[in-house]
Design brief:
Distance between the termini: 27 Å
Number of helices: 5
Helix content: 55-70%
Strand order of the largest sheet: 1-2
Order of helices and strands: HEHHHEH
């Protein structure tokens, strides 16, 4: 879970970088300074705002709900793994005791040892499977949160007549932004209201 802010920051960097490249470069159609491209919007005329992306995510109620769900799944996976681990340890101790006391034949001991090796392999496979599943769950959670924010910003920008809403976070291409353009709290208030109203209807 500690990777979440880093993952989201990387996604933000990619998204904002793509936006700048797409909007401020015109491949194959260079224009002279001051010459307007038909249908284009001058940067100086664009209405721009930005959000502190980390602040929005880490104060978004959806993030807490999905994080709690992921934590529950992680606890369940750990409990399952611990249970299998205790079964293996118990079997290993039983094997050692019976062999040391001469309570089983060599053939039985060999079979018990083979079973323990298979049980150990199964335990390792289960651990890898659960780790992979949790990583996928976390990736999906991150995508769901970002998609919800993007969808909300589409409506937010349209309602407030913004041409751009940038995501500012540590390491993002937006190195500086005038505080007067910061709409983080408005977005956070609006997105939490929308999300909670949707949750009430479920």
């Amino acid at each position: 879970m500690k990777k979440l802010p880093l993952i989201l920051a990387v996604v933000s960097i990619i998204a904002v970088g793509f936006l700048f490249v797409r909007e401020f470069t015109v491949p194959g159609n260079q224009v002279e300074s001051g010459e307007a491209v038909e249908g284009s919007l001058e940067v100086s005329e664009a209405k721009i705002a930005y959000i502190e992306l980390d602040t929005v995510i880490l104060n978004f109620d959806m993030y807490f709900d999905l994080r709690d769900e992921l934590m529950d799944k992680q606890s369940s996976s750990e409990a399952r793994l611990n249970s299998k681990g205790k079964e293996y340890e118990s079997g290993a101790m039983d094997f050692q005791e019976k062999v040391s006391k001469g309570l089983v034949t060599r053939a039985t001991a060999a079979q018990m040892e083979q079973n323990l090796r298979q049980q150990q392999q199964d335990l390792m496979n289960l651990r890898n499977q659960l780790e992979t599943e949790l990583m996928e769950e976390e990736r999906v959670m991150n995508n769901r949160i970002l998609q919800y924010i993007y969808d909300f910003l589409d409506d937010f920008a349209a309602e407030n007549d913004y041409d751009y809403v940038l995501g500012k976070s540590f390491g993002s291409p937006v190195m500086f932004a005038n505080k007067s353009l910061d709409v983080t709290q408005a977005v956070l208030k609006g997105i939490n209201y929308k999300y909670n109203e949707e949750q009430k209807k479920k």
